[in-house]
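Support case: zinc ion complex. Customer-provided input:
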Amino acid sequence: MSEPLESDPSLLVVVLDVNASAWSKSPLTVGNALQQMVIFINAYLALKPENKLVVLASNKRECKCLYPVDRANATIERDIRVYEQFRVVDATVLSGVQAMLSGAEETVGDPNRGIEEGQTLMSRALSKALCHIHRVVDSTTSKVWSRILVLSAADDSPREYISLMNTIFAAQRMSVLIDICKVFGGDSVFLQQAAEITGGNYLKVDTAGGESMLQTLMFTCLADHYTREVLVAPTNETIDFRATCFCHKRVVDIGYVCSVCLSIFCEMAPVCSTCQTKFSFRIARAESAQSNGTLKQSPKPAAATAAMSTLTLS
Ligand SMILES: [Zn+2]
Ligand SMILES: [Zn+2]
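Agent response - structure generated as follows:
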């Protein structure tokens, strides 16, 4: 992997969480947050003329690409006082988010595929972001350094854990940084891991306490791969590395791990529901009986046998 150069252009994919239910609890309004995000995007585009941008928006039901748009279908009025690209980005992003927010209100009560009202399809948005990145990187001859910025408002969706972790590891392999800006509510366990694994920043902005989202974004997320090598990034001291069980989609502190496919379960089971491996408890029980003189239900990992092993997640 080559080192980033100062002249290398960047590709930024902004993922906007536009879950109306989540934003209704926020001290920062969605309109205000979007205005600040648009200013940040304009600053990013102004840094280098070669910089590329993709804007995605996701809520509980859908994930849409807001920018770039098909120019033939775009109906944006001309204004000679504003730089063309700024105007197109501002207008398409703001109108696209408005359409998604009003659409969400109309379809309240639709089947939600196990995703709760206050949760967003984040794995789908990140997968789409990686597809856009792959397409742009593939179509350009010069080196483009990519990163994703997620403006997160909604809670984690444990149902998405597996797909989200797969997306995060794919991003890591593609050298794509994932920055997270969480504007209110509790920490997102999964997005914290996304930032940590890919080398991005996890920023929690206390908007209720008067912290500025725009200022935080400008100081930490505007820097490209080259600049980040000489900057001291904010450190995440308390990262929650807990996983979600594959059976009930619950975040667990201690789980059982399939020794074949590494699936995590909150309860001991005779057969792995992911890879259908049948666990042999005979050897584990024999070992346990020898050491303690009693028969224990808790299986221990045994060599050369498919046994479930316990894993403490901290
Ligand atoms: Zn479970
Ligand atoms: Zn398995």
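The longest helix spans residues 84-106.

Case will auto-close in a few days if no follow-up is received.
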